[in-house]
Structure formats: C-alpha cells, structure tokens
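Sat 14:20. Reprocessing the chain from the morning session after the first attempt stalled halfway. Input below, unchanged.
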Amino acid sequence: NSLESRVEQLHDISYRTPVVKLDDDKYKSFIRTMPRNYSIVVMFTAMAPNRNCKICKEVHNEYTTLARSHRYSRSFDTNLFFTMVDYDGGAAIFQRLKLTSAPVILHFPASGKRKKEDKFELERRGVGAEAIAKWIKERTDVNVEVIRPPNYTNAILLGVFLFAVSGTLLIKGNSLDFLYKWKYWAITSMFIMFAMTSGQMWLHIRGAPFAHVDRNTGRTSFIHGGSNMMFVAESYIVAVVNGVIAFGFIMMADAPRDPANPSSKYMSYGGLGLVVLFFSILLAIFRMKHRGYPYSLLF
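Finished this time. Tokens:
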C-alpha cells in the first residue's frame, strides 16, 4: 500500500467512526508499514464480557469521547488518528508488543521510534479524556478540546435538593429553630471534611475507577498500591476510618466527668480503643501506598 492510499483509507474509516478498529492486517498496513506521515494513537483493550475488565469499558468511553471530540472539532488535524485493538481480535498484536494487560494506550509517532513517553501512564494520569488529551498534546502538539454531551444529572439533583428544602420550610412554617442548632452544622461540616480529606475531589478530577479486578486471578483490589493513584472504594474506606477516629475522640471528650460513674470510665476506654485501633488501620493503609514508611502502631 502506498502512503497516499493508506492515508485515504484512514480518512474514509475515521469519517464513519472516530475510533478505527484494527485487526492484524490493518495494524501492519497503517502502523508497521513505512513511511508514515501521520501520528496514530492506539488503545489496546479487552471489551468482551468474559474478560471481566471493568476499567476497559470506562477507558473506552473516555477514549471514544476524545476521538469524537477530535473528529468533529474545528481544529481537526488530518495527521492524527485514533484507533483500537481488542484482544479477542488482535491477540497476535498484543504478543508482538509484549502486552500482558489491558487497557494500554500507545502513541506511534509519524517518524522515528517510540519512546518511553509514548505510553500513556494510566495509573498516574487517570482515565479521563482530558488527561489523555493533555498527553496527546505533549506528544504531537495537537490540541484536542474535549466536548462532552450535556449532562443533566447535576441539574436534576439540584432541583430535587431545592424542592426538598422548599418542602421542609413549607412544612415547618415559622419554626426554623433547627437551623440554629450547632449539632446539625457540626455533623454537616464533618461529613464535608471526611469527603474532602478522603480524596473525593481528586477522584472527581481524575475519574479514577471504583476498584481493580486482576484479569488473571480475578482478585479485586480496593486499595491501590501506589502513592500516585487511588480507587473510589479506597476513598470510602479512608473516610470511614477517619470518621471512626473522630468519633473515638468525641467519646473521650464527652465522657461524664464523674469518677464515681462507671459509664464514664467505659466510654473513655471505648473511645481510646477506637482511636488506637483505627489509627493503626490508617497507618497500615499508608504503608501499603508508601512502601518505605517505617512506622506502625498495632499492625
């Protein structure tokens, strides 16, 4: 195939679908055949249900959003193409590139050999389309503005919230004393603090997966082993642990101060036990993510 013929084929396919699906023949034609005056991004994935790759579907959705944004943008670059290789239709390609897991996103430059930076670091950068677009800008100088379809979920939730607040005020009438009770505001503030300190905002920005399922063993990991990445489930665990530690301190602070009252002693010891136990769990999680951390408490 001549270069002009290959470019024309890629354009024809990409006009019909933003992500070009590659089999072994198309991979050899569009990527391995030289010369090549275009950059090509390939997502290696395993979308079949029997592969049980949950993160593959999430990355596929973000990758497709990015490819569609590029295809229909005003700054569409005709020398950049988005492609995909599924394991069930391209196992030989996986073996040729020595890929043992999915998903993987690689960039094949127009000239020269691939470098280490031409592999998208999924665990460090996240799975969001914006993160992939930033990486593509670094590798190709092509700026892809991610365009997402309208999401009315937030608007609906806001409407429901306002409706609930309005209904509460209508039912309560003139009785708004509950707004002046400090315990309500204290509990609300604590929930917000636990959510923020557990990494919820970071997860929202990065679009991290809920957990990871090992494709070979089927084992589910809820805590990521690296310090640059975390799972949604991991943030829930950290939030609960922080909440129990705070509850333990509250138990010790609010224990009756009458030495003759046996409940005072039990409440204080119970709060101390919760603090020691769950702070030990928090340190253990920290050591899992920072392998060289030397300190521990109970375990």
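The beta strands are 19-21, 39-45, 80-86, 104-108, 212-213, 220-221.
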